[in-house]
Amino acid sequence: MRSSNQSPVRRRAVAYAGGALAAVLTGTALYALPHLAGASPTTRIADTAASGTPSAACDTSSSASATPGTPSASPLNSPDIDSATPSGSPSGSASATPTVSTPASSSSAPSAGHPFQGVYAFSGGNTSDLAADPDVAGRSLVYYWAQLEPQQGRFCWNLVDQDMKPWVAAGKKVVLRVSAAGWAKWDTAADSAHGTPSWVYAQGVKSVTEQDGAVMPQYWNPAFESDLDAFLAAFAARYDGNAAVSAVDISLGVGGESKADSEKNPDLLSLWQSIGYTDELWWGYAQHTITTYTNAFHRTPVALMPDKTFIGGTAGYDESRIVDYAVAKGIWLQDNGVVPGRSLSAPWGQTPVVAEMRGATDETGDNLADDLKAAVAEHPVFILVFTSDITDANRAVLHAVAVTAGTGG
Fold first, then answer.
1. Which residues contact 35 (CB under 8 A, 6 or more apart)?
2. Distance between CA 389 and CA 124 in Å, rounded?
3. Which positions ≥6 away from 216 have C-beta within 8 Å?
4. How many other C-beta atoms are found inside a 10 Å radius of the C-beta of residue 68?
5. How do the domains of the chain map onto residue ranges?
6. How many whole angstroms separate alpha carbon 9 and alpha carbon 279?
7. Beta bridge partners of 386
């Protein structure tokens, strides 16, 4: 790896990485990365758009068999759900992203004692394009409930197993996320506009249809909660304790994040109130589902993805409520809003953190070096990088971060 026959780009990457983990975690090394003279225009290795390759057909013939893992032995209930009475701290208008402030001193240790595992590819469909990339340690695989349980009690685990296979073969790991709702444009191949199975609605669960045509469920409906509980029990029986799964995202609302809906719809609140939404109901649902995940997954870590969380503006109901709740339970937190110049306040950092770029740099106008600097400053377990930014032009900065996790060729 350190041969004199290395290309100038590779030699610069190795030299840059030589400062070791401590230097990178301070952020100074990332800022010092020289611009590569004469570097060719960005070459896309993978694309942010969903893969045009059709998904494998659902195979439920082996749906009852499980990979190594232990099903939950305890009932999927929520014994510790808070009352609807708001906590003492007033809400005001909550930010759509975690609070920006000086990093908490409690965040000084890398992800509460969990070592950095490297860069994971995110977005672009559940492709295997980057499985052989030495600077990529794994992949975030995203699914919709309707994909995996199109008929009640019939599970399409072969879709997940097939997507995991090339990453496992390469000695890498995956993060699994299964959402019940998403924007229509996110993954047309997976029909992200219809994340909840149709059979759930047939039981009387109401829904809203957003401006983009996405259909989102009445999450707090008892039938929805019961059906989702049963799915998560089966999901955990299949994948809890699987050595190739780094973490499972706790999926609550749109795209799995903690808010019911993030469409920029001026009538968003009235749309949701038409099927009975209140912040108190959403909070009850959120606690119930978080507890379902923690009851079901005993060996694989689960990570909550907080955002504004509540859409009703009720005093005392803001993002800090769900963050405090998760940290008190020792749950990992996933920051899906990493951008330069922003830091996280306590209690972020008191449990392990996953850092996800807010957007691809061709959309945000950032550069990857600055995005990775901001991500590394959170001392994450791993960093989710948009596939469109995993390019030859970004190779040096990607490699520099990868080698601090013991990965990188």
1. none
2. 11
3. 181, 195, 196, 207, 208, 209, 210, 254, 260, 261
4. 12
5. 78-403
6. 52
7. 122
Encode pLDDT of 299-352 as tens digits. Answer: 999 999 999 999 999 999 999 999 999 999 999 999 999 999 999 999 999 999
DSSP 8-state assignment for residue 389: G
As a whole number of angstroms, the distance between CA 54 and CA 169 comes to: 22
The DSSP code sequence of 328-387 is HTT-EEEEEEE-TT--B-TTTTSS-EEEEESS-HHHH---HHHHHHHHHTT--S-EEEEG
CB count in 10 Å sphere of residue 115: 13
Residue-wise over 18-42: b if at least 16 C-beta within 10 A, else e?
eeebebbbebebbeebeebeeeeee
Structure tokens at 402: 């990868």
pTM for the predicted model, two decimal places: 0.79
Residue 42: name the closest of 397, 392, 386, 400 by CA.
Answer: 392
CATH assignment, 78-403: 3.20.20.80
Assigned token pair, 269: 């609140």
Q: How many CB atoms lie within 10 A of CB 379?
A: 20
CA pair distance 289, 229, nearest whole angstrom? 8
